[in-house]
Design brief:
By secondary structure, this protein is α+β, with helices and mostly antiparallel strands. It contains 12 helices and 7 strands. It has a 7-stranded antiparallel beta sheet with strand order 3-4-5-6-1-2-7. GO terms for molecular function: DNA binding.
């Protein structure tokens, strides 16, 4: 691990980001054009003290999950992401598993879709990022522990959800989702987090295990979901999945038919006010 070079790069990457580029107010009392250390720590879900020690070359051995969170917060390119891992003494995660890195382009797409709920998932259905509208629609999940940010883990273990579905709709979703997860294993047979998730799901959910043994393989692309929001009530939305070229990240956008009652309910939700954009703390 090259602590001094890692520290230099982290400071450089923080200084080059403007507050506006990550959805923050520029303010008038800034002494430098870049982000404050506290702001990067918040976006990455790490403590300010730990980030300070990294930037000063005093902290060693950051975990891959912390590096991924920092890379997203700092909006690193693919090459910069690989360099970050090398400096920290880790192999480039793309060499032996799925790509979970959010490029600056993906961040910009999410920023431009501020009026629609948007979430970003990896191929293992792990929640990578949300925008404020998605948090307002689905509830706060991005700050929860890593396992509880996995949508299939939440579903098959019965965690609270605002999604309302009939038994038939639940069965159809489970069949499609498990087939999609099996397809991911085919693409990434050596991805340790993916393998661990499947092993654990088979232990805790008989329904998942039964569907896993069916052996179906398919890509899950789009669906419709009814969301029961505690303030504005129910709405049925289209959930369209956009794939990111060069990775297995999926951008899921929730929309309603223009002029419909669902569109009006979604617009009402947009007026309530939510947190600013937050990336996964891993």
């Amino acid at each position: 691990m090259d602590r001094n070079e890692l520290a230099r790069c982290l400071r450089h990457w923080r200084d080059r980001l403007s507050p506006v580029s990550v959805g923050l107010s520029a303010g008038s009392l800034r002494r430098a054009p870049g982000l404050r250390r506290e702001e990067v720590a918040h976006l990455a879900g790490v403590s300010v003290d730990y980030l300070a020690r990294l930037e000063q070359g005093r902290a060693g051995n950051p975990s891959p999950s912390v590096l991924e969170a920092l890379a997203r917060a700092l909006r690193l390119t693919d090459d910069e992401n690989a360099h970050l891992f090398r400096l920290a003494g880790h192999a480039d995660p793309r060499t032996n598993g799925m790509t979970r890195h959010m490029t600056p382009g993906v961040h910009r797409i999410i920023d431009r879709l501020a009026d629609s709920p948007v979430i970003v998932l990896d191929a293992a259905w792990q929640l990578v990022a949300t925008n404020p509208m998605a948090t307002a629609l689905l509830g706060e999940m991005i700050s929860e522990p890593a396992r509880q940010r996995n949508l299939l883990w939440r579903h098959f273990t019965g965690m609270p959800s605002r999604v309302v579905a009939t038994p038939e709709e639940d069965a159809a979703f489970e069949t499609a989702a498990v087939a999609d997860l099996r397809a991911a294993v085919g693409r990434y047979p050596d991805d340790v987090p993916l393998r661990t998730l499947i092993t654990d799901l088979r232990k805790v959910s008989a329904r998942f295990d039964k569907r896993w043994q069916h052996g179906s393989v398919a890509r899950h692309m789009a669906t419709r979901k009814t969301i029961l929001h505690p303030q504005v009530g129910p709405m049925t939305l289209d959930c369209d999945v956009l794939t990111v070229e060069g990775s297995d990240l999926r951008i899921v956008v929730y929309t309603a038919e223009p002029g419909s009652s669902d569109a009006r309910t979604l617009s009402l939700l947009n007026t309530i006010g939510t947190q600013r954009f937050t990336a996964s703390p891993e």
